[in-house]
Amino acid sequence: MNKTRRYLFNMFSQMGLEDSPELTVKAEAVMFIRAQMDKKKLTQKVLAEQIGWTPSRLSDLLRGKLDLFSYDKINEALAPFSYVIHAYPKLERSKPAKATREAA
Question: Higher confidence at residue 4 or residue 43?
């Protein structure tokens, strides 16, 4: 795990957020998008047009409103840079319902 990912994961975990692994991946993607925009000198308006979003929608992502975006939506923003998030859902066994005892 690289330093940035470890830092983000620790930060989200310390905040008590159960979805800290997901938030970590999304935050890394946003930082990557920002870096690529700077590197390629892209404005929010230009990138928004490329991915078919409004500039305000892209602004929400870049300002860290991560809960508004699924992996699929973030992948739309990553597409111009030829990157993608691969998310693998975790299969967990459901907890059995607690049996209730009737008082005799």
Answer: 43
Q: Which long-range contacts (CB under 8 A, 24 or more apart) does 60-66 make?
A: 61/30, 61/33, 62/30, 62/33, 62/34, 64/27, 64/30, 66/23, 66/26, 66/27, 66/30
Within a domain: residue 39?
A: yes
Summarised one tens digit per residue, pLDDT across range 39-76 is: 999 999 999 999 999 999 999 999 999 989 998 999 99
- Amino acid at the residue 9: F
Write the DSSP symbol of residue 25.
H
Task: Give the separation between CA 82 and CA 40, rounded to whole angstroms.
Answer: 14
Total number of domains in the chain: 1
Amino acid present at 46: V
Task: Give residue 36's domain range.
Answer: 25-86
Residues 6+ apart with CB under 8 A from 34: 62
Give the pTM. 0.70
Which uninterrupted H or E stretch holds 49? helix 44-51
